[in-house]
Design brief:
Shape of chain B: globular
Number of helices of chain A: 7
Strand content of chain B: 15-25%
CATH topology of chain A: Pyruvate-ferredoxin Oxidoreductase, domain 3
Number of domains of chain A: 1
Radius of gyration of chain A: 16 Å
Strand order of the largest sheet of chain A: 2-3-1-4-5-6
Helix content of chain A: 25-40%
CATH class of chain A: Alpha Beta
CATH topology of the largest domain in chain B: Rossmann fold
Largest sheet of chain B: 7 strands, mixed
CATH architecture of the largest domain in chain B: 3-Layer(aba) Sandwich
Strand order of the largest sheet of chain B: 3-2-4-5-7-6-12
Oligomer: heterodimer
Strand content of chain A: 15-25%
Largest sheet of chain A: 6 strands, mixed
Shape of chain A: globular
Largest interface: A-B, 53 and 59 residues
Radius of gyration of chain B: 27 Å
Number of strands of chain A: 6
Structural class of chain B: alpha/beta
Distance between the termini of chain A: 31 Å
Distance between the termini of chain B: 43 Å
Helix content of chain B: 25-40%
Order of helices and strands of chain A: EHEEEHEHEHHHH
């Protein structure tokens, strides 16, 4: 069994915690020991949110040491850059092409919203897979499945059989949306598989 | 069956499996989910939110006196509120079994301090159990109850944020019932008159000696043999970081960190070369080991402040010379911060936008509204602890000789928690301050819990709602006014009159939280606003209300200034931004345009 550490990041309200629950559930179904850690409290109020997921035969620390994440899944571009120091030098970053400028950027002097976060992450990661998850989700007819598209894009980095992903999705999403979520997952996986890094 | 549970969910499961009867709490991060989980999954347990931690403690304590198995959960600073019964009940005992969950917050993720409550356990003579993952969080509830009933002692189950909120795999068991034994009257035990308490104190001291003997033989304290040149004593989440970073070391893992199994530690120390103690926050274990004359190294290599991580624990071993320095981890990139903000439609926004104009001295309190201190609103001069705003404002007024221009802002749940006595004092004192009661009809910051004003209990049952205005009147306040914080004009006028009056005034805001409870959100949403591109002059006045729904658009004015834009999927239609726009460029979408 290959050990994997995945950091999922985004902005409060984007669904980072649900995505990390899905990943943990799928890994557990695949027979791994799993630990997952995040801090609650500010998740609803537009703050930066991160969730550590560790998958192995036996996991001790629920937190990933800096520079030790095999994969980084970012729901938002600037958040990818904020957390990239957790990624291994040869790690993969899957980055949603969403840009959420925080209100603070509008009235405070400072570094400002990063110019091209994807390019900056590329300079520090083994591989970068940028994905316009919203467009993929809209093509499937429901912009709300953006997160499942992103999990699908991440799945290529992990040793979790598709069946376990599907069971995890079935167990966690609203009953009427299982099919579209499974479709979104496959579409994300396919988009990432076809991506050729420049 | 194996499932993935957070530490808090596992504690709730442990309550179920160990036959708990009564669970109480006041919400507080990182402990809140324990009671929520009990209420939603284990209906056989009588669970309730109490107005504050002291009451929650007393209810659980009373249940244990009457022979029930009881648990009360609180964040670390909540135990300060409950400290009075916490200390005194130690001399009485807890015949049915009483577990006090102290959820500490190293690193202050959502707290005003990072006190280490293991010191309280020692102070009061409680056993202290420290789980390191969710399996132990579940199992230690049962162990705590067994110890509590067997020794007639309340037990502290000491969690930390990382244990409460991390999820790990848990093996589930079945519930085992325990009969409620009933109250056995014994005034010498249950009535702590001095002549009774003196006798009970001797008993409690002797009980602690028996507990120390128990700790010596308990399998909750276990040795994991490894390299003989390095021995590590650790507990709680630090154990996981030690296993991760120095897996070959000999480890003595403490499940019971008070009282310590000091003779076993002495033997372990003799069996290893250098002895390290790795513990978050205070040198609680280290100092007791040193006091027993056993040399060890701890805070010399690891920080006393802040939360640990595998990186911090590894760095300590590197400094101590027992771990080779690994490759330097990459440095973080400086990215613009993303601080939490008031939600779109939050009723606190209008109040603080209106209050900002008065340049008042504002003593605020603990809740979502503390976010007003951050820019762009930047209102709030003092905030200490739950319920402190009113008393503090009265003190400031004394020092100034007048209450004019002094405001206390306090939420509904915080007022009911511990603000009422402050207001009573303000009446009695004749203080001329202005109190703003931010009534959003929920405990919002911790995720939307009911309180005595909402008319619902933890389990969702109907309860008689208390009315804040009536409470204020009953406490003796004469100037009470209900205001609509979405109406900046009215709110500003009411604030101005109160601040100028020099008399004690209470203003109560009347808009509910836009997030909680989720089922009322639909009734709050009104058609969203939009920016008229032909009217927006790019002055950015609307940015200053700090709403996540407002941003910069691509459009520019003739002078090249960026115009504003409103995200209609986020906008709740509260209208506050439209009232600050100097050119009326922000207008409501027609009815039916709402999402």
């Amino acid at each position: 069994m290959r050990s994997m550490s995945v950091l999922i990041v985004g902005v409060g309200g984007q669904g980072v915690l649900l995505a990390s629950e899905l990943l943990s559930d799928a890994a557990l179904r695949a027979g791994f020991d799993v630990k997952k850690s995040e801090v609650h409290g500010m998740a609803q109020r537009g703050g930066s949110v991160s969730s550590h997921v560790r998958i192995s035969g036996q996991v001790f620390s629920p937190l990933i040491p800096a520079g030790q994440a095999d994969a980084l899944l970012a729901f938002e571009q600037a958040e990818a850059l904020r957390w990239v120091h957790f990624l291994k030098a040869d790690g993969t970053a899957v980055i949603n092409r969403r840009r959420l400028v925080p209100p603070v950027a509008l009235f405070r002097k400072g570094p400002g919203y990063p110019e091209d976060p994807v390019a900056s992450v590329r300079a520090r990661a083994g591989r970068v897979i940028p994905i316009d998850a919203e467009t993929v989700a809209r093509r499937l007819g429901n912009p709300r499945v953006e997160n499942t598209v992103l999990l699908g894009a991440l799945s290529g980095c992990l040793d979790i059989p598709e069946d376990d992903w599907m069971r995890a999705i079935e167990g966690r999403v609203p009953a009427g949306t299982v099919d579209i979520n499974c479709g979104a997952f496959r579409a994300g996986a396919e988009t990432a598989a076809n991506w050729e890094d420049a | 069956m194996k499932v993935l549970l957070s530490g808090n969910e596992a504690v709730a499961r442990g309550c179920h499996e160990s036959g708990l009867h009564v669970a109480t709490a006041y919400p507080g991060t990182p402990s809140t989910e324990i009671l929520e989980e009990i209420a939603s999954r284990y209906a056989e347990i009588d669970s309730e939110w109490c107005p504050n931690e002291k009451v929650a403690f007393e209810v659980a304590m009373g249940a244990s006196f009457a022979g029930a198995r009881a648990l009360t959960a609180m964040k670390h600073v909540g135990l300060n509120v409950a400290a009075d019964p916490f200390m005194s009940v130690s001399l009485i005992g807890a015949p049915g079994g009483l577990v006090v969950v102290s959820a500490d917050d190293p690193g202050m993720h959502s707290s005003q301090n990072e006190q280490d409550n293991r010191l309280y356990a020692r102070f009061a003579g409680y056993p202290c159990l420290e789980p390191s993952d969710s399996q132990e969080s579940k199992d230690f509830v049962g162990h705590s109850l067994e110890i509590s009933a067997a020794f007639d002692v309340p037990v502290m189950l000491r969690m930390t944020t990382r244990v409460c909120h991390a999820q790990s795999v848990v093996r589930l068991g079945e519930r085992r019932e325990h009969p409620v034994r009933g109250f056995q009257p014994d005034p010498r035990k249950y009535v702590v008159l001095p002549n009774h308490a003196r006798v009970q104190h001797v008993w409690a001291a002797e009980r602690l000696e028996r507990l120390a003997a128990f700790s010596e033989s308990s399998p909750l304290n276990r040795e994991e043999p490894g390299r003989r040149d390095v021995g590590v004593i650790t507990a709680g989440i630090s154990y996981q970081y030690v296993r991760e970073t120095l897996p070959e070391a000999s480890i003595f893992k403490l499940g019971i960190s008070h009282p310590l199994p000091i003779e076993r530690i002495r033997r372990f120390a003799a069996s290893v070369g250098r002895l390290f103690v790795v513990e978050e926050l205070e040198p609680f274990i280290e100092e007791q080991i040193l006091a027993a004359g056993i040399p060890c190294e701890g805070k010399k290599w690891w920080p006393r402040l802040g939360e640990f991580s595998p990186d911090i624990v590894a760095a300590g071993f590197v400094r101590a010379g027992v771990l080779e320095r690994g490759p330097e981890p990459p440095a973080p990139v400086e990215v613009q911060p993303r601080p939490p903000v008031f939600c779109p439609g939050c009723p606190h926004r209008g109040l603080f936008v209106a209050l900002k104009k008065f340049k008042a001295l504002v003593a605020t309190d603990i809740g979502c509204y503390t976010l007003s201190v951050y820019p762009p609103i930047a209102v709030g001069d003092i905030c200490v602890e739950m319920g402190a705003s009113i008393g503090t404002a009265v003190g400031v007024a004394k020092a100034r000789g007048s209450g004019k221009g002094i405001v206390a802002t306090i939420g509904d749940s915080t007022f009911l928690h511990s603000g009422m006595t402050g207001l009573l004092n303000a009446v009695h004192d004749g203080a001329g301050i202005t109190v703003v009661l931010l009534d959003n009809s929920i405990t919002a910051m911790t995720g939307g819990q009911h309180q005595p004003g909402t008319g619902k209990t933890l389990s969702g049952a109907a309860a008689r709602p208390v009315e804040l205005a009536k409470i204020c009147a009953a406490l003796g306040v004469e100037r009470i006014r209900v205001i609509d914080p979405y109406d900046l004009d009215q709110t500003g006028k009411a604030l101005g009159e109160a601040l100028e009056s020099g008399e004690l005034s209470v203003l109560i805001t009347n808009r509910p939280c836009t997030l909680y409870p989720p089922e009322i959100r639909k009734s709050i949403l009104r058609p969203p606003f939009r920016v008229k591109p032909d009217a927006c002059i790019g002055c950015h006045a609307c940015f200053k209300v700090g709403c996540p729904a407002i941003g910069e658009s691509e459009k520019r004015t003739e002078k090249g200034l960026s115009q504003s834009r409103i995200d209609r999927t986020l906008c709740t239609g509260c209208s506050v931004c439209s009232q600050v726009c100097p050119v009326q460029a922000i207008v409501r979408e027609p009815e039916g345009g709402a999402k």
